[in-house]
Write a structure and sequence with these properties.
- The chain is of the alpha+beta class.
- The chain has a domain at 9-46 and 58-79.
- Helices cover 28% and strands 37% of the residues.
- It has a four-stranded antiparallel sheet with strand order 2-3-1-4, with helices on one face.
- The protein is globular, with a radius of gyration of 14 Å.
- The two termini are 14 Å apart.
- The model has no long low-confidence stretch (mean pLDDT 88).
Length: 93
């Protein structure tokens, strides 16, 4: 089962470039065997909107946010408004 954490931040004004650099550094630091997918996105129409998607492989049904995701969401609050959601794959039955 795959768990996706989507963390979006709306950085304002002077914080936009700082948020961009922080997310790039985060991806370089945390991407590896434990967290194989870290994808960064920017909004195509709104300047300063960023999203990071953390992809985890889970053995059991668990929709809880991870410690890494919580820490990232908390750290991004210094740049602007943050939204943190957790999604799991839907299984066919």
């Amino acid at each position: 089962m795959k768990l996706l954490e989507i963390i979006a931040v709306r950085a304002s004004g002077d914080f936009e470039e700082q948020a961009r650099q922080y997310l790039i550094q985060f991806r370089h630091t945390f991407k590896g065997p434990a967290l194989p997918e870290v994808n960064l996105y920017i909004d195509s129409t709104i300047s300063g909107d960023f999203a990071v998607i953390l992809s985890w492989q889970k053995q059991k049904r668990a929709g809880n946010k991870t410690d890494v995701g919580r820490c990232l969401a908390e750290a991004l609050k210094r740049f602007g408004l943050v939204d943190h959601t957790c999604w799991i794959t839907m299984e066919d039955k």
